[in-house]
Amino acid sequence: LLDKESRKHEQILEKIGVKNSEGALVSLDKFITFDTKASDLEILHRNGLRSVTLSASLRKAKISAVEAAGIIKTRINNTKKIPEGVIVEIAGEALKTNIIMKDMKTALIMAVIGIFLVLALFLNSWKKAFIIIAIVPFCIIGIVIALFIHGQPISMFVLLAAVGLTGVVVNDSIVMTDTLSSGLNKLSQENSLINNIAELASQRLRPILLTTLTTLGGLLPMAYGLGGYEKMISPMSLAFSWGLLFATIITLYIIPSIFLLVLCKTKTV
């Protein structure tokens, strides 16, 4: 309708005629006004809706992205100044972390199920597999205790340590269960079943403790930042070391007890 140069002049735009219901031309200046102001450099849309993105950098030594997102979400929910029709979404690192953490929880469950099936297949006994895998919940408890004592949040790297730890803690449990299964028939039947199990468990005390202590010797310096703190490796090492330590203690006491309970019910393992 107008060339590029004419569009720059307000006086020309005001005289553009628009047909009314009777077919007569009415100039634009009869029912509109012009206002000059600075415009956005660009207009972004998301899912067909006009959007504005606010971003910020965090001091991760002070607060994590997930914690910051939680604070922002709480304040947004408590404010009454957001206009009707405005949709607020929190994305970025916090959203990606939440997605990864959900995937890690699924991976942890799948790891436990996979370990149980492999043990049941090779040992040809679901009861032995149950006794061995019973240690996994206790290593998770050790991780939770460590995070609570040290004031650390549950992060992606902590869950990654938990997934890896499930395959490590069962090693001591396998050694203990195998010793109890193969050694009971060799001991004197004159002693009580509890005494025989206690004797066999004590034989595995030194190997299990030595294995755990040597592993902790490599993990604890990284967990506590001796020589330098690393925000990704240190929480992972902290979770791994405390989970392993707690699971080892439980292996020496709880696994023989579970073995005794199963043996008393079935008479055979």
Distance between the termini: 92 Å
- Principal-axes geometry comes out as elongated
- Number of helical elements: 9
**Strands, count:** 4
Strand content: under 5%
Order of secondary-structure elements: HEEEEHHHHHHHH
Overall mean confidence score, pLDDT: 81
Largest sheet: 2 strands, antiparallel
Helix/strand-derived category reads mainly alpha
Q: Radius of gyration from the CA trace?
A: 33 Å
Unreliable parts:
none
Helix content: 55-70%
Give me a quick take on this structure.
With 269 residues, the chain is mainly α. It has helices at 10-14, 65-78, 93-123, 126-133, 136-150, 156-183, 193-203, 205-223, 233-266; strands at 17-19, 25-27, 44-46, 49-51. The chain is 61% helix and 4% strand.
What does this structure look like?
The structure is a single chain. This protein has 269 residues and is mainly alpha-helical. It has helices spanning 10-14, 65-78, 93-123, 126-133, 136-150, 156-183, 193-203, 205-223, 233-266, and strands at 17-19, 25-27, 44-46, 49-51. The strands form two sheets. It has a two-stranded antiparallel ribbon. A two-stranded antiparallel sheet has the order 3-4. Helix 2 crosses helix 3, helix 3 (93-123) packs parallel to helix 6 (156-183) and helix 6 (156-183) runs parallel beside helix 9 (233-266). The chain is elongated and about 115 Å long.
Supply database-style keywords.
61% helix, 9 helices, 4 strands, mainly alpha, single chain, two-stranded antiparallel sheet, 269 residues, 4% strand
Fold topology:
Blueprint lengths: L9 H5 L2 E3 L5 E3 L16 E3 L2 E3 L13 H14 L14 H31 L2 H8 L2 H15 L5 H28 L9 H11 L1 H19 L9 H34 L3
Antiparallel strand pairs: 1-2, 3-4
Helix pairs in contact: 2-3, 3-4, 3-6, 4-6, 4-9, 5-6, 5-9, 6-9, 7-9, 8-9
